[in-house]
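Write out the 3D structure for:
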Amino acid sequence: MTGASGGALDLRVGPATQRFAVLGESLGHTWSPAIHNSLFLAAGRDAIYLPVTVPPDRLSSAADVLRSCFGGFNVTIPYKERILPLLDEVSDAARVCGAVNTVTCRDGRLLGDITDGAGMLAALTEGGVHTENADALIVGGGGAARAAAVAFIEKGGRVTFAVRDVEKGKRLARELSASLGCDGARLSALSLGGPLGTHDVLIQCTPVGMLPHADACPVTEADISRCGAVFDAVYNPRETLLLRTAKRLGVPCVEGLGMLYYQAVEAEKRWFGDVGVAPGVQRDIYRQLLARF
């Protein structure tokens, strides 16, 4: 019923509405609410997703509040590592990566997981890149690189880290090999300053190429040309110098926005057991997201 002022009673959120959120220190540009609320709407869920800005000294109290009255939440920089001591349980993948981006609130317990790797694989698959038993060159040694490495190893592949400090890269390879219980020959490291060899796919997991430094690229044209496909986790700008170079060389490439979208899809599988949205509808929502950038 419309009142005299022209307003209307909004009944979309009520006592039974499930609540979800993203926690971060600065969320002025987050697309997570738009993605999750679109998926909720498409699935017909009575749920809402909100951005929650949390100062560093309030992370523990914020997690306690969400524990009691939210269905789950996502965690973004700089809290992906800091949230770990506040959780009651973490998945094997999150433990190996040393980071969490998805938390499920269940029976008063906080259950942590990481969906970045699964989201990246889904984006690659959507882009027509084969990931089963793939030989991946992963640029970087941070949390995103770890998540990507775990994802490829779990798919039967092998991983080479391309890093500036090759000794640190080798330690990372040994640590992951031990944690995953896999053959050490499947994980190795090379220096970014030298030749990087031939690989099925190059996975770029550093901030290099992100605005305002969009004219930077972490690898050479020769390195790009020796890879069967290229993925860049950077999505601002959507088309980095790495991706532009790969296109010019005729190398298939996948942009980082797909990882942002599909890690959200994977998060909802943790919360609900199933995203509840058909793949074709998921792609429609993703295309609308792309049109906004």
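Residues 118-255 form a domain with the Rossmann fold fold (CATH 3.40.50.720).
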